[in-house]
């Protein structure tokens, strides 16, 4: 009988699929118990065990390899300074590049051996001793030597028609080597790589597929420590595919390029694998985005080729460090879900944003929609109407698909994308004037359509990459003005001056805008600016009684709006943010 209670492998009371598979594998109780502890924090192993296409032999082999590596990691090194020393690892990836190599220089850079020898195990050196590549390795102890040695000595084969075996080979020979090298460096020198794999849309809050049903998510990405900057990505295919099929996925899933994702980077480092074949690439920022090979193809089944892969991993890591330094302080998290949860179980609403890389758009989801609609009083039909009515307006985000509700999930695809307000806060009077100008164009369009926004806050404002043009986000609180009574959950940004009687009217939006601008009042010194700020400091009731509107405010001298031909604000019709 297993020493582990089956309830330990459950979420919400239901067994996770991988647990049933682990119970059924021909393992000893001791193996199964130890494996459970490690698999709980290993998403790759969970995915493998939950994959119905993975054979029992493949799963047993992977579990025992996981236990072997865990046991090796727990053993103290006989001379940890040889490998685990940050100085030695720094010598391996040094000298630090002043800038990423130019695209035509990348192949030579990647295929030039590192300046220091790569630590590995004695058994790995035995395997490659008669090959010239052995001159670039040295026998040592420590975690990096162990991982490199395991990669070279790997005996795993490709036996399944699915991608499972490819993923195992790729993880062992590339991903794990790069991660181990990063972890071995001193904190001041390491990237702090965050590795993410696509777990499949059935486990995601956001389904992202092409019209043909193909997933639009990368198979894997490497990000900086904050989880935002995408430094590299990769695609996998099973043995029934050629490497160009994986490369085609790289291109299709990086068909859109914007500095909002990649700053001024000239290319995105990546790799592709099909069956046992792997190759490194760079995706250039030009319009074609055709991946360019930067290493030869290598076989993950050949020990000499796996040694080559270890060298490429060191060089690839050097490249990622240089790429990281080339990114600006603020970028959007390409191909990543940003999730916010409101409320507490059992009544909570989840909002998800995903910045797609096949197009420069953001996909937004709210679920369960029925609960959100009850809280806010919004209706999907009205949201479709306000998006349609403002499609040709400037200063606010536009819907390019949806909105629609399916299975109690609200989805809309939006453009343009832009920097969050935290990355583009107005820092002087001119910046604040431009932001006010843009938001009034947005409100004028919304109000002309017979709606009110109801959620004017800086977190619902974005800026173009140049940080000079702003636009309004989050129309999902919009309702028709003739039924804009208080919602079931009153937004905390509302004050006693927000409502007119018991209703939220167009003047309420203007009052809320005024409160936003007051956050940066210290920047305003001109007479026109001070007069404008004073005007919007009036309560909504007073603005309503004086018939102050967004359209009338656009004529204020401070805003310098050129009128009907104005094109000075963010989110021009058709603008993507690319």
Characteristic terms for this protein:
578 residues, alpha+beta
Describe the structure.
- The radius of gyration is 28 Å and the shape is elongated.
- The longest helix has 24 residues, at 303-326.
- The strands form 6 sheets. Strands 5, 6, 7, 8, 9, 10 and 11 form a 7-stranded mixed beta sheet that branches. It has a 5-stranded antiparallel beta sheet with strand order 12-13-14-16-15. Strands 17-19-20 form a 3-stranded antiparallel beta sheet.
- Helix 2 crosses helix 4 (56-74), helix 7 runs parallel beside helix 8 and helix 9 (164-184) packs across helix 12.
- The chain is built from 19 helices and 21 strands.
- With 578 residues, the chain is α+β, with helices and mostly antiparallel strands.
Concise overview:
With 578 residues, the chain is of the alpha+beta class.
Question: What is the global morphology?
Answer: elongated
Segments where pLDDT lies below 50 for 5+ residues?
Answer: 1-15, 76-83, 201-207
Radius of gyration: 28 Å
Report the mean per-residue pLDDT as an integer: 86
Largest sheet: 7 strands, mixed
* Number of contiguous helices: 19
Strands, count:
21
Strand content: 15-25%
**Oligomeric state of this protein:** single chain
Counting helices, strands and paired strands, the structural category is alpha+beta
First-residue to last-residue Cα separation: 59 Å
What is the percent of helical residues? 25-40%
